[in-house]
Design brief:
The complex is a heterodimer of chains A (182) and B (144). Chain A contains eleven helices and no strands. Chain A is mainly α and 182 residues long. Chain A folds into two domains: 104 residues, RNA polymerase sigma factor, region 2, helix turn helix motif (Rna Polymerase Sigma Factor, Chain: A, Orthogonal Bundle), CATH 1.10.1740; 75 residues, Arc Repressor Mutant, subunit A. In chain A, helix 9 crosses helix 11. The model of chain B has no long low-confidence stretch (mean pLDDT 77). The chains are: A mainly alpha (182), B mainly alpha (144). Chains A and B meet through helix 2, helix 3, helix 8, helix 9 and helix 11 of A and helix 1, helix 2 and helix 5 of B.
């Protein structure tokens, strides 16, 4: 089985089959991440589509010194930051919509920690936390994906962990208020 | 992996993110219509090289002007002011017959110890900075 980086190099040399394989590997992972960052499911799906199209168009700029996932997430984060056409064109719909993340989480006895994180942390701190503990990315790659310094990333992760850890302790109930960190 | 990391990983898996066949078809169609962008032409690279070359020339010229100005200043330089250390010991005053008439004047001096408190303050500050750095490093190490 080829690694992501090998497939990306093949795709750079013109192999559409290799790129399709990469899309197959990343579509669920990326959609899960984008659902947590977007205002609606429609926006997340648009951002997913834009991410794969942009990555395809600018494949020549992929640098194999970095992991393919780092490069792809870098594009996805940029797309997620832009409001989608659904949000831009219809503000009423956006207000009426439920949080897509809340919709996608199966009912459970306790609140999903990512919902708490979304309420407490800034978008960048949230992304850093996701890339570290879900995608298992090294700190240097996270810094590259977020276009930040390694020190900034370390400090942001440290603060985000401390903030979430405080919420996990039994003394303080999980809430949606508080200062936004990161 | 601690409790928090485990919960983050588990809760991420609990997020349902199914890609519908319609979405898959949409992505495939948009990829078929997409065209690969061409890498930047060599002309672009040469303009970057030109920019570097002009910047370098500017820097070298500026350095040359600074050196020349300093060179001219060197020639008009007067005798240097004696260092403060030279005043540290004042020679005894020698006045003819003065010693016989009035006895020796007590003119032995020593350097005023004005820099002592400042040096101590600097040592304290350095020590505080070292402690703060150790604390930050310890915090970061414990979280990664």
């Amino acid at each position: 089985m080829n690694s992501d980086e090998q497939l990306a190099l093949e795709a750079q040399h013109g192999s559409d089959r290799a790129y399709s394989e990469l899309v197959e590997r990343y579509q669920v992972r990326l959609l899960r991440f984008l659902l947590t960052r977007s205002a609606s499911r429609a926006d997340a799906e648009d951002a997913l589509q834009d991410t794969f199209v942009n990555a395809y168009r600018y494949l020549y700029s992929y640098d194999s010194r970095w992991r393919f996932s780092t490069w792809l997430y870098r594009i996805a984060i940029r797309n997620a930051a832009r409001p989608g056409p659904a949000a831009a064109g219809n503000e009423e719909m956006l207000v009426a919509d439920e949080d897509p993340l809340a919709e996608c989480i199966a009912a459970s006895e306790r609140e999903n920690l990512w919902l708490t994180a979304k309420a407490l942390l800034s978008a960048e701190a949230y992304s850093a936390l996701w890339l570290r503990y879900v995608e298992d990315m090294p700190v240097s790659d996270i810094a590259h994906a977020l276009r930040r310094s390694v020190s900034w990333t370390k400090v942001t992760l440290f603060r985000a962990r401390r903030r979430l850890g405080g919420e996990l302790s039994p003394a303080t109930p999980i809430g949606k208020k508080g200062q936004i960190y990161g | 992996m601690d409790n928090l990391e485990q919960r983050l990983a588990d809760d991420a898996k609990a997020i349902e993110a199914r890609v519908s066949p319609q979405l898959e078809a949409r992505i495939e169609a948009s990829l078929q219509n997409a065209q690969r962008a061409a890498p930047p032409e060599p002309g672009h690279r040469s303009s970057v090289t030109l920019w570097w070359a002009s910047s370098l020339t500017g820097l070298v010229t500026a350095a040359l002007v600074i050196v020349l100005l300093n060179w001219n200043r060197e020639s008009t330089k007067t005798d240097p002011v004696p260092a403060a250390r030279e005043f540290a010991t004042v020679p005894e005053a020698v006045v003819p017959d003065a010693a016989d008439r009035y006895g020796r004047l007590p003119l032995t001096t020593r350097t005023a110890d004005l820099t002592g408190p400042l040096e101590e303050e600097l040592r304290n500050l350095k020590s505080d900075i070292e402690k703060a750095r150790d604390n930050v490093e310890q915090d970061i190490r414990s979280s990664f």
